[in-house]
UniProtKB/TrEMBL annotation:
GO molecular function: ATP binding
Subcellular compartments: Cell membrane
Key words of the record: Antibiotic resistance, ATP-binding, Nucleotide-binding, Transport
Primary localisation category: membrane
Protein name per Swiss-Prot or TrEMBL: ABC transporter ATP-binding protein
Organism: Amycolatopsis samaneae
Length: 308
């Protein structure tokens, strides 16, 4: 049986007095997409850079495709693709030249022209790196990570700063990689990215795993697993609305004008909420019955917003 794509046990990394990674455990199966999620400074990049062999851990064990990145870098490099945070290249190099250069180092590269096209960069192939937009630089960096047909790819905030269209291209590409059996470990602040792409999500805070599992498992509550949300004018009398609901239900204004009914949601509860709103002359907009979001799970666990 082949080793997991990534297996981390008790990882610790300190920078002087700062403990960036503080006993982190993680296991990622081959052919899966794992999202490392957490606020700024949680230790995501440090963890990924240790997996990539760019940093050495202070304690713990890291295995990437069954190998030790600190010792077996030469064996791992042809099998692993890396997209660092912020990318980077010689400012004058043209996009197409850069990708062809990276391709020339690989034994069996993808076709650079095809990859530029897939990532919406065909028209920018003659553009010097420094003149590409931030989102284009990111996509070129992703292309460089993928050109050598890696078995495993590390993507550090792959869609940071991209517009929704470019983000969608990257998401489609990650989905296609997964379908081809490539393992993908990505870091992100974006809930939607993790929920859309990942088979498993590992939520990290202060260098530790606070929760891990499939996006579905992490967001499902016990019982009916649903919540009711709606938007309306600010400062509705939530205590009064609560009294219109069966005992045990709580209504909160989670942010100005956004209301959350906590408790198992059934058709009677939906009806009671809308009737109460009608009595008050309030139109409940964007009324939704659905699962908790990963954002809410994170907030509950840490008391902090994910996007710090
Ligand atoms: N080279 C360094 N020297 C000193 N401290 C560092 C260094 N790199 C990271 N740190 C600190 O280690 C902690 C973890 O940083 P890291 O970049 O791994 O977090 P992150 O989760 O990737 O954050 P972000 O989402 O902002 O990229 C932070 O407190 C950071 O300030």
């Amino acid at each position: 049986m082949s080793a997991p794509a990534v297996e981390i046990t008790g990882l610790v990394k300190r920078y002087g007095p700062t403990t960036a990674v503080d006993g982190l455990d993680l296991r990622m199966e081959r052919g899966s997409v794992l999202a490392l999620l957490g606020p700024n400074g949680a230790g995501k990049t440090t963890t990924v850079e240790i997996c990539e062999g760019f940093l050495n851990p202070d304690a713990g064990s890291v295995r990437v495709l069954g190998l030790d990145p600190a010792r077996d870098g030469a064996a791992l490099r042809p099998r692993v693709g890396v997209m660092p945070q912020g990318g980077g290249a010689y400012p004058g190099v043209r996009a197409g030249e850069m990708l062809r250069l990276v391709a020339s180092c690989a034994a069996n590269p993808l076709d650079p022209a095809w990859l530029l096209d897939v990532l919406g960069l065909a028209s920018a192939r003659r553009t010097p790196f420094k003149r590409l937009s931030g989102g284009q630089q990111q996509r070129l960096s992703l292309a460089c990570a993928l050109i050598g047909r890696p078995e495993l790819v590390f993507l550090d905030e792959p869609t940071a700063g991209m517009d929704p269209q470019a983000r969608r291209l990257v998401w489609d590409l990650v989905t296609a990689l997964r379908a081809d059996g490539v393992s993908v470990l990505l870091t992100t602040h974006l809930m939607e990215e993790a929920e859309t792409l990942a088979d498993s999500v590992v939520i990290v805070d202060h260098g530790k795993v606070v929760l891990a599992g499939s996006p579905q498992a992490l967001t499902v509550e016990s019982g009916d697993a649903a919540q009711l949300r709606f938007k309306a004018r600010t400062r509705l009398d939530t205590a009064l609305l609560s009294t219109a609901l069966p005992e045990g239900y709580v209504v909160r204004e989670s942010s100005p004008g956004a209301y959350l009914v906590e408790g198992a949601v059934d058709p009677q509860v939906v009806s009671a909420v809308t009737s109460w709103c009608a009595q008050q002359g309030v139109l409940p907009e964007e009324l939704q019955v659905g699962r908790r979001t990963l954002e809410e799970v994170f907030l509950e666990l840490t008391g902090r917003e994910l996007r710090a």
